[in-house]
Amino acid sequence: MFSFESSLTFAEGDYPDVALEGFWPIEEGFVWTRGKWCQITFPFDATQPTDRSDLIIDMDVFHPGESGQNVFFYLNGLRIGSKYINGRVTLVLSFPSAILLAEENVLTIDTPDVACPADFGIQDDRQLAAQIFSVQIRRC
Fold first, then answer.
1. Are strands 44-45 and 105-110 parallel, antiparallel or unpaired?
2. DSSP string across 22-48
3. β partners of residue 23
4. Rounded (10°) CA dihedral 10, 88, 24, 113
5. Cβ of 29: how many Cβ atoms within 10 Å?
């Protein structure tokens, strides 16, 4: 179960205790999103409530050359932030803790500028958008 004290990291062949939708198989230390959006579904243990929380996400995007991508973040259907990303970054997005649910939470990452590396001369036929290294939720 996900909590304020835990984080979600990706290791090759190691699938975390969450449901992943819209992702390619986990690689060594990260996972690529498969298309224009992905979802991470997780239960959350918030036994010590707080007014605000932060979503901390270590990520990059597929960005050939100098380009980047717009990335939009939603938690349980509510938009909690957006960012134009053109390199690896650790984002901190603050949101009201009341959004978090005990049973099931859905973090949706929307990346409308998904691209295929093969279109840029790279030998990879997958559609790639965001590269996720870790996700954490902490108290503000």
1. unpaired
2. SBPPPBTTBEEB-SSEEEEEE-EE-SS
3. 33
4. 150
5. 12
Express each pLDDT in 83-136 by its tens digit.
Answer: 999 999 999 999 999 999 888 999 999 999 888 888 888 899 999 999 999 999
**Encoding tokens for residue 114?**
């998904």
Q: How many Cβ atoms from other residues are within 10 Å of residue 137's Cβ?
A: 26
CATH homologous superfamily of 2-139? Galactose-binding domain-like (2.60.120.260)
The pair of structure tokens assigned to 16 is 């975390």
Residue type, 94: S
Cα separation, 122 vs 119, in Å, equals 7
The whole-number average pLDDT for the span 35-40 is 92
pTM of the model: 0.91
Taking residues 64-81, report their average pLDDT: 91
Characterize the bridge pairing of strands 130-139 and 44-45.
unpaired
In this prediction, residue 5 carries a pLDDT of 81
